[in-house]
Design brief:
This protein has one domain: K homology (KH) domain (GMP Synthetase, Chain A, domain 3, 2-Layer Sandwich). A three-stranded mixed sheet has the order 1-2-3. It is globular. The longest helix is centred in the first third of the chain and has 21 residues. Helices cover 50% and strands 22% of the residues. By secondary structure, it is an alpha+beta fold. It starts with a helix and ends with a helix. It contains four helices and three strands; from the N terminus they run αββααβα.
Length: 111
Amino acid sequence: METTRQNKIARLLQKELSEHFRLQTQALHGVLISVSIVRISPDMSIARVYLSIFPSEKAQAILKEINESSQTTRFDIAQKVRFQLRKMPSLVFYLDDSLDYLENIDNLLKQ
């Protein structure tokens, strides 16, 4: 069960990461990255960030690039939230494939 503090930090990071990825993907036409959910560990040291990436064919390659540049992303976000957070958690990115799963179920039900 997440505490109120964990939820507040998760919402703050989700908002800032969404803006960060929106600005990054403006140069990549046809790519959309959205932050589905952020989960904070109880000791506030790790943030698990779930991303929805469109188109899903490029998702694994884009996720690999994001994970490789996670320290740079962490630094950029830390600069934006430096007055709200004392310590910036480490960012670990995961692929949120729930939309692909729902699409697959829809296709199976239509058959």
